[in-house]
Structure formats: C-alpha cells, structure tokens
Write a structure and sequence with these properties.
40% of the residues lie in helices and 12% in strands. By secondary structure, it is an alpha/beta fold. It has one domain (32-246): NAD(P)-binding Rossmann-like Domain (Rossmann fold, 3-Layer(aba) Sandwich), CATH 3.40.50. The chain has a four-stranded parallel sheet with strand order 3-4-5-6, with helices on both faces. Helix 2 (37-51) runs parallel beside helix 3 and helix 3 (76-103) runs parallel beside helix 4. The longest helix has 28 residues, at 76-103. It binds nicotinamide-adenine-dinucleotide.
Length: 253
C-alpha cells in the first residue's frame, strides 16, 4: 500500500517512509502529535491531498510510564499525557478521517491499538490500562455505529501482548509541561517487596513486531472486530464467569 506515516518523532516516520519508497510505494512522513486535534486534522488533509481516498487508518501511537507506579502516586499530568496520546489520539483519528472515509464509495477500515493489559489486572499501570480500555469501548461502539449507518467502515481493536519495541522508553517523548505537577515517582515495587513489574518489550518472550503485521492484515481483510497477538489471558474467562454468575436471569437485552 501507499502509506502516510505519522509520528511525533519525524525521523522515526521518515525511516519508515524511506523503507516504503525503497519498495516502490508512495509514502509521506508527517510530524504529528496525535494528542492535538488540529494536528490530526492537518495530517488527514495531507493524507487525502497526497494519496486520495484512505483505505486504512491505524491509530497506533501509544505511550506508557516507567517505572510502574500506583494510581495514588500518579500526577494529574501522568494521566493527562497518557490519556491524551493513547485515547484522545485514537479519537482524533476517527474524527478527522471518518467523515471523508464515509463520503468515499470505497470500503475503509480502522485499526485501534489497545493492549492485552486491559484483559487482565495490571497493578501499577492504571493510567495506561484506563486509556487502552477506553479505546476498547470506543471501538466497540463506533464499529456498531458505522455498521448501523451503512458507512462501509470496519473497526478492529488490536490487543497486543508483549512485543519487542522501544515502547518502555516512551517517557522521553513527554512534553516538559506535563511534568509540572509530578510529586516524585514512587516505583510500584515499593509496595511489592521489591518485585518489579515488567511488561511489554521488557517481558521475556516478547515477540518480533514483524509477527504482528500479518495478524493485523488478516483482521483488516476479514473485517474482524478483534485481533490478538498472544493467547487470551485466563482472567477473561474468570471475568465472564463472575459476570454470568452475578447477572440477573433471564438475561437482559
Ligand atoms: N510493545 C508492547 O509490548 C505493546 C503491548 C501492548 C500494546 N502496545 C501498543 O502498541 C502501540 C505501538 O507501540 P510500540 O510497541 O510499537 O512502541 P513504540 O514506542 O515503538 O511505538 C509507538 C510510537 O508512538 C509514537 N508516539 C508517541 N507519542 C506520540 C504522539 N503524541 N503523537 C504521535 N506519535 C507518538 C512514538 O514516537 C513511537 O514511534 C502502542 O499503542 C502501544 O501502547 C505495545
């Protein structure tokens, strides 16, 4: 495909653009802070001007905090930054692209990256889990909305497990102003006898990002509501069991 690559780090986007150009595709790199609505609108303008109709939108930019910390040790800025990139970034993507996708006769597809962290309890990671769970709920509703309105736009929620990327270093991208109200970071292991919390790229057994590509492509081609890179955490079954046990009978529609 021809691809517009957006990232807050322009050089990172340019590296991917150059790979695509070397494959003989058209590609453009655009520096974009997805937490800013105006920047995502401007990105959509560039995308439609450069490539015409957009078939696939991947809302994939994401950040996390390190070290892991308790919600009560987190600052307002911690939450605002993570929600801003992870949830509002995906929202801004929908808002900027969906009207133009809907106006096109061609089918389109949106992939929103959530996380396996939302499918199991993840202590020390509340802001991230909240932001990624918001993506799950938003995707569930918008997929149904687009289908009900006959827009021809599919939505997939991608739930990655651990993947070998530079993800754990994302605090480097945090605007300095966001740190203004930080109270001083208390590592999560302060509360767990020194046992550190590891996730994502730091986890033994994290997979190669190249293995995720075919999974996402399959979800787009088959308009799947979900894409998974790893086995389903057992907690999902436990949650289903508890909800079933506690729900009124007969089931309420
Ligand atoms: N790596 C994992 O183990 C893992 C697990 C579950 C979910 N995820 C999710 O996968 C997605 C991709 O992450 P990744 O693992 O490839 O990490 P990554 O750090 O390599 O990629 C994330 C990209 O987002 C960009 N970014 C950060 N803030 C931005 C902003 N404000 N505007 C635009 N771009 C911004 C970064 O520059 C980076 O290139 C993220 O949403 C992440 O939450 C990753």
């Amino acid at each position: 495909m021809d691809v517009v690559v957006a990232d807050i780090e322009l050089e990172a986007a340019e590296r991917v653009r150059d790979e695509l150009l070397a494959l003989g595709r058209r590609s453009v790199a655009v520096r974009t802070d997805v937490s800013q609505a105006a920047e995502v609108e401007a990105l959509a303008d560039v995308a439609y001007a450069e490539l015409g109709d957009i078939a696939v939108l991947a809302n994939n930019a994401g950040v996390t905090w390190r070290p892991y910390r308790a919600s009560w040790d987190a600052s307002i800025g911690d939450f605002e930054w993570i929600m801003g990139v992870n949830f509002w970034g995906a929202f801004h993507g929908h808002r900027a692209f969906v009207p133009r996708m809907a106006a096109s006769p061609l089918p389109a597809h949106i992939v929103n990256t959530s996380s396996i962290a939302t499918l199991k309890p993840t202590p020390g990671h509340a802001a991230y889990t909240a932001s990624k769970a918001a993506i799950g709920g938003f995707s569930l509703a918008t997929r149904a909305e687009y289908a009900a309105a006959g827009l021809g736009i599919g939505v997939t929620v991608l739930y990655p497990g651990p993947v070998q990327t530079g993800f754990a270093t994302s605090e480097r991208l945090r605007p300095a102003a966001d740190r203004a109200d930080a109270r001083g970071v208390v590592p999560w292991q302060t509360y767990t006898d020194g046992e550190p919390m590891r996730a994502g790229a730091e986890t033994p057994g994290a997979i190669d990002p190249a293995a995720v590509g075919p999974i996402v492509l399959d979800a787009i081609e088959h308009d799947r509501p979900y894409a998974m890179t790893h086995p389903l955490p057992p907690y999902v079954h436990e949650r289903a069991r508890l909800l079933t046990e506690l729900s009124p009978h007969p089931p309420v529609e």
